[in-house]
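Example 9 (inverse folding). The structure is encoded as follows.
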């Protein structure tokens, strides 16, 4: 039934995870389909490969934020 809704009216994607400021993971409210943003800014299915890429990207992003916060505190 949920897939019928999405096929008739389209998916209703909500942000499920903020990876960085620009990269996010999305999940359809009705059918639970997961999508993410690729390097060109287009929606693509969230495969295990892309989950791993987003995880590493999130880790690097958070380390950079921590480093910049430490630098601001030192000044």
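The amino acid assigned to each position is listed next.
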């Amino acid at each position: 039934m949920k897939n019928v809704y999405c096929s008739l009216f389209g998916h209703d994607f909500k942000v499920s995870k903020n990876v960085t400021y620009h990269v996010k993971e999305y999940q359809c409210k009705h059918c639970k389909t997961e999508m993410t943003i690729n390097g060109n800014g287009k929606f693509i299915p969230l495969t295990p490969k892309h989950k791993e890429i987003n995880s590493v990207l999130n880790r690097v992003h958070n380390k950079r934020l921590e480093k910049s916060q430490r630098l601001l505190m030192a000044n």
